[in-house]
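For the sake of transparency, this paper describes our internal protein records without simplification. The tokens are whole numbers drawn from a learned vocabulary of local backbone shapes. One such record is reproduced below, unchanged from the form in which we store it.

. . .
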Amino acid sequence: MTVDQPRSLHLAAHFPGAGGPAAWSDSPVSSQIDFASFEHLARTAERGLFDFFFLAEGLRLREHKGLVHDLDVAGRPESITLLNALAAVTDRLGLAATVNVSFNEPYELARRLSSLDHLSSGRAGWNVVTSSDAFTGENFRRGGCPDRVDRYTRAAEFIATARELWDSWTPDGQPRPIFRSGQHFAVQGEFTVPRSPQGHPVVIQSGDSDEGREFAAAFADVAFTRHGTLDAGRAFYADVKARLAAYGRQPSDLKIMPGVTFVLGASDAEARERAAAIRHEQISPERALLVLEQVWGRDLSSYDPDGPLPEIDPEPDVLLTQGLTQTGDPLETAARWRELSRAKGLSIRQTVIEATTGQSFVGTARSIASAMADFVSQGAADGFLLVPHLTPGDLDEFVDEVVPLLQERGVFRTCYSGTTLRAHLGLAQPVWKG
């Protein structure tokens, strides 16, 4: 009789922006510009033997009702520049950046990512995102943005072009010219960077739409997702993994990693109290109204955040916040929030707190380790992208308290067995296509 071995899980650390989930005042290193902030979180992630460190991207400061309302991820240095610097102060940790394919060109970006892969000895990752946001497009020479229907076709051609560039050097170090002419890109010439240690940097994708899931199955090595329950996670996991076969891929070729938060306490009750206090701090009265206005598409500044939700319906075609991707139908969201508010007797602020809280592990270090292991063993994830509440020091607590318990359970590494991000993730080296 054989005993099933526990499934190993993967961990990554996200450096959030200044708005939203991050609280900076609790940390002695509290700047989203100072390199020390990024170095601290990256070194902590490497000490915890994480697979990779992840940076989001913002290409324009968001505006709400015509005024800049937060810095978010746009108020800090460019991501690949940061990761090249972090490559010098880390040894094994993967380094992944979000880069938008709607406002970049394949040759230039393939060169930057290949350079990062060389300088880090094979630790580069690329989170592929698209944009249908004309407001952001105003920062670029061609203005506007691709039509929504073209977003994924452009992204697919972008990745195919980048991979052709990465494969244009032979394994023995000889450059070969490429001649590619497609719907969106035409490239003719020679790539200036030899084939990098990983062959291709790891490709990451996030998106819950049907198009996004299909794109992940076709192109991605890692997929980020947001799901608030085990059942929702299992459904997403099963659906995306089932799509891989159509592209000649195995389930192990794609790692699914939900973005999650965590709150630790000496007891589960203490952790729940702490989590409630954190969310109360994150969603101030002013921010609660701002979030409500983003859904309603109306100026709601006259409403009391501690009062009931508006009786008026949203204006579905009005965007008061520029630079923010709207997800879901506003009328459906409003109906869901009203039902939640009525069922629990919640105010505007309380409703926003409860409705916008994503997947979070709350409890003692032991209960969180157990819950994470269960999530993976029950087919809801291959690992997790951790989003700390406090930046950058909050991850230290997880590394010191939860990681040893995951190792004790046999579901997390006790040392790095490889040197590249692909090795950490258990992904095969891309076969050179000559």
Summary: The chain has a mean pLDDT of 89. The domain at 10-265+360-425 is CATH 3.20.20.30 (TIM Barrel).
